[in-house]
Write a structure and sequence with these properties.
heterotrimer; B: mainly alpha; two-stranded antiparallel ribbon; 69% helix; 3% strand; C: mainly alpha
Chain lengths: 247, 153, 117
């Protein structure tokens, strides 16, 4: 077993170059290291100018998403020695503009997330004196899976539609909209439907399914989107057959 | 269509008019051009495009079904000649491919059914495996029905 | 209220067509294009076949199969062109041609089944 491994990193320094370039680094190939440890080794010992995002280093913050050997992964959750002996290619997330090296601009995702109103919307707020909103385990189970999203955007990187259609809302935003739609405390489904029922909402999605495959938290955005398509179609049918009923 | 690299050199107002996704004040951010043949890049994408192309087989089958109905309405002679055309080797090869694509459509479609349906019986959620088995059972039943109706005695 | 997309209708047709095609087309195709013409099974005679098809519920079922399959193709192929060949700038043209041809074939099929045999 070799004791070092090559990391091929995509560098982009806008003040120096027009296009990204590849740069190779030799990094110790420790069994217990993650790819993130390799990047930190490079920054500490080899090239302090390497720019990348990370924080919790344990797979809960969603900061360290990058494309390693063609697959979007959390670099803090991917073993350095687990991807073979060959050079590892590390690139920034697909589908987002690259600011520098491995850092991408995520404002588009943030805007789209906010547009689906990912918070509890109630017709009438209850006063504190009435106590908490109670929820049965079954009601919790309805939305719990989708609530696990850490906004790491690996699903956006894996989604070819997001790369092709600039206005597509994207997997995580829809999954989080569903997380609130399916929450028994929430009354905002109709408001979210206005945003999601546009062509750039759920209808762009062609169920490639890669979003659910790469999700590190098993949120299953693909399933959320398909179920929402059924729901939106039912609502449309209802509005057609019973236009007098309030949504 | 404007290339991403050109946007870096346009003044802000013109850039925004040409492409609404242009981000003002950040002309140096790099936007990679997504390749036209992105679906050749990953096996999963290739499988996806193959699945999508099965729609051609479905459309072809619909049209040929219409054709056979029309031929039947033209009389016994026409039907016999149509049958002879069906067994000619080039037609058989094409139809063999179409059948394979139709089977791929069926399998991929039914396998995705549990993802799209979140059904509940009373308070309990029906497990994905049950939904899957139910769909395959329906496939078996539909096949048996068609066979019985067309060639059953 | 924001403009409601027309997509739900086409998606519903696509979905129904996909399910029907998945369940029924392989069997139909296996019989009509292989088993019967190649003699793997005792084929129904011409008269028998016409009689079997000439019943209103059967004609209706076949019509539904044909129409929904055509709209399944139209919807799916439309998106395949948008995404597979990056032709979404021809959004309107592709939508018109795909759903348009499906509609034309539907009208042909309606006439065909109505006047059968």
């Amino acid at each position: 077993m070799s004791d070092s491994i090559t990391l091929q990193i995509q560098r982009y320094r806008p003040e120096e170059e027009e296009e990204p370039v590849w740069q190779s680094f030799e990094v110790p190939r420790r069994d217990e290291w993650m790819v993130l440890d390799g990047l930190n080794y490079i920054k500490d010992n080899l090239d302090g100018s390497l720019s990348y995002r990370w924080a919790c280093r344990m797979g809960v913050c969603g900061s360290c998403g990058m494309v390693v050997n063609g697959e979007p992964v959390l670099t803090c959750a991917t073993y350095l020695a687990g991807l073979g002996t060959g050079p590892l290619r590390v690139e920034p997330l697909e589908g987002f503009p690259v600011i520098r090296d491995l850092v991408v601009d995520i404002q588009d995702f943030i805007d789209k997330l906010v547009s689906v109103k990912p918070w509890i919307i109630r017709d009438e707020e209850r006063p504190l004196s009435e106590g908490e909103y109670l929820q049965t385990p079954e009601e919790l189970a309805e939305y719990k899976q989708h609530s696990m999203c850490i906004n790491c955007m690996l699903c956006y990187s894996a989604c070819p539609i997001y790369a092709l259609e600039p206005d597509f809302i994207g997997p995580a935003a829809i999954a989080l909209a569903q997380r609130y739609n399916l929450d028994s405390r929430d009354h905002g489904a109709a408001q979210r439907m206005d945003v999601l029922s546009q062509h750039e909402g759920i209808w762009c999605c062609t169920f490639v399914g890669e979003c659910s495959v790469v999700c590190p938290k098993n949120v299953d955005p693909a399933g959320a989107i398909q179920r929402y398509k059924l729901k939106a179609t039912a609502e449309w049918l209802k509005s057609l057959l019973m236009p007098w009923s309030k949504r | 269509m404007t290339r991403p690299e050109d946007l870096n050199r346009l003044p802000r107002a013109v850039g925004a008019a040409v492409n609404p996704s242009y981000k003002p004040y950040h002309p140096k951010w790099h936007r990679k051009r997504y390749p036209v043949f992105w679906w050749l890049g990953k096996f999963a994408y290739g499988k996806f495009i193959t699945r999508e192309l099965t729609s051609l087989a479905v459309g072809y089958a619909a049209v040929l079904l219409m054709l056979e109905i029309w031929v039947l309405s033209r009389g016994q002679e026409a039907y016999t000649r149509f049958q002879e055309l069906l067994v000619s080797p080039p037609v058989l090869i094409v139809h063999g491919l179409v059948l394979l694509f139709l089977l791929f459509h069926s399998v991929t479609w039914l396998n995705l059914a549990p993802k799209a349906l979140a059904l509940r019986l009373g308070r309990k959620r029906i497990p994905d495996a049950a939904v899957l088995v139910g769909h395959y059972a329906a496939w078996l039943f539909a096949t048996a029905l068609v066979v019985w109706y067309l060639v059953g005695r | 209220m924001a403009k409601v997309s027309r997509e739900p209708f086409f998606w519903a047709m696509f979905s129904a067509g996909g399910m029907l095609a998945a369940l029924v087309l392989p069997a139909v195709v296996l019989l009509l294009w292989f088993a019967i013409p190649l003699g793997w099974v005792e084929a129904p005679s011409y008269v028998e076949l016409v009689t079997k098809i000439d019943r209103p519920p059967v004609k209706l079922a076949l019509f539904a199969l044909v129409v929904l399959s055509l709209f399944h193709w139209a919807h799916r192929f439309r998106f395949t062109l948008y995404d597979g060949l990056q032709l979404s700038h021809l959004y309107g043209l592709i939508a018109t041609v795909s759903y348009g041809s499906a509609t034309v074939l539907t009208l042909l099929a309606a006439r065909l089944f109505w006047s059968f045999p």
